[in-house]
Amino acid sequence: MALANTIEKSINNTEYQVESYLGKNGNIDTYIVNNKNDGRKYICKTRISSAPADLYEKELYGYLSKQRNLTKFINPLQSQIIDSSTNMTHSFYPIMNGISLAGITPYLRQLEPDEQTILSRVIIKNLLEEIGRAHV
Question: Three-state SS string across 17-85, please?
Fold first, then answer.
């Protein structure tokens, strides 16, 4: 719990304010944050690590963000703040607006069961294909 408080304090010392904690994946903690200047919400991925690896990640995301065929699949890196006092790197990404899977449910319920199955399979297949392309 002390580490979570340290991470939140480190984020709150920037132009962002922590709204909620989303979870942990490996050594990355993920938060929803608000920009104190413009009020927009962002995803903040925080990692405790050395700066050179994070600079490489920033360059990689910069490169991927400029590839026209990938831009609809890659959430662009908005900004990155390296807190050298805590060895934390905070990477900020805009929250992508789109229909959620929960938003599709009312439309699926209007379909016949066979049609629901077919459409659900198509959605899942497309999601998995795009995730596969992004992670190859």
Answer: EEEEEEEEECCEEEEEEEECCCCCEEEEEEEECCHHHHHHHHHHHHHHHCCCCCCCCCCCCCEEEEECC
